């Protein structure tokens, strides 16, 4: 089993949120992070509901929603898992769904730990600025 220590380099692309910070301001990014965190439990619940009811449409929709928000947050590993789950629902691949939901839950916990790190928004902005000035 993976360690529960957050690894911002692996779990998040700080430049993505840093760029968003540059464009919209740190307060907007902080609001986005709060929204991402507050919606996490309902996103996971929708995935589980779709899994248990074998509802392909709900599963695709829930996975797409998660994929979009994860991509915007720079959580590319999480977004990739959501894409795989979306495809599994679309193609009717039942066997992979349970493991993908478990992987999404784990990856999401790591993303949340990174986002909750004090000073994350400021570090993301600094990382982005350094990347464009290099």
Strand percent estimate: under 5%
CATH class: Mainly Alpha
What's the average pLDDT? Answer: 89
Main sheet record: none
Second rung of CATH, namely the architecture: Up-down Bundle
What string gives the helices and strands in order? Answer: HHHHHHH
In which range does the helix fraction lie? over 70%
In short:
It contains seven helices and no strands. It has 134 residues and is mainly α. The protein has a single domain (26-133), classed as Four Helix Bundle (Hemerythrin (Met), subunit A) (Up-down Bundle), CATH 1.20.120.
Topology of helices and strands:
Layout (H helix, E strand, L loop, with lengths): L7 H4 L2 H11 L1 H28 L2 H18 L2 H16 L2 H22 L4 H14 L1
Give your account of this protein's structure.
With 134 residues, the chain is mostly helical. The protein has a single domain (26-133), classed as Four Helix Bundle (Hemerythrin (Met), subunit A) (Up-down Bundle). It has seven helices and no strands. The longest helix has 28 residues, at 26-53. One of its GO terms (biological process) is phosphorelay signal transduction system.
Notable traits:
Four Helix Bundle (Hemerythrin (Met), subunit A), Hpt domain-containing protein, mainly alpha, 7 helices
């Amino acid at each position: 089993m993976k360690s529960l220590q957050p690894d911002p380099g692996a779990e998040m692309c700080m430049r993505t949120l840093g760029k968003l910070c540059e464009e919209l301001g740190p307060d907007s990014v902080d609001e986005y992070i709060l929204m991402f965190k507050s919606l996490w439990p309902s996103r996971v619940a929708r995935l589980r509901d779709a899994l248990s009811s074998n509802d392909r449409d709900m599963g695709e929709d829930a996975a797409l929603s998660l994929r979009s928000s994860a991509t915007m947050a720079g959580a590319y590993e999480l977004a990739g898992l959501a894409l795989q789950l979306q495809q599994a629902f679309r193609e009717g691949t039942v066997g992979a769904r349970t493991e993908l939901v478990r992987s999404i839950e784990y990856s999401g916990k790591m993303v949340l730990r990174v986002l909750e790190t004090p000073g994350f928004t400021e570090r993301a902005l600094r990382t982005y600025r350094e990347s464009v000035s290099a």
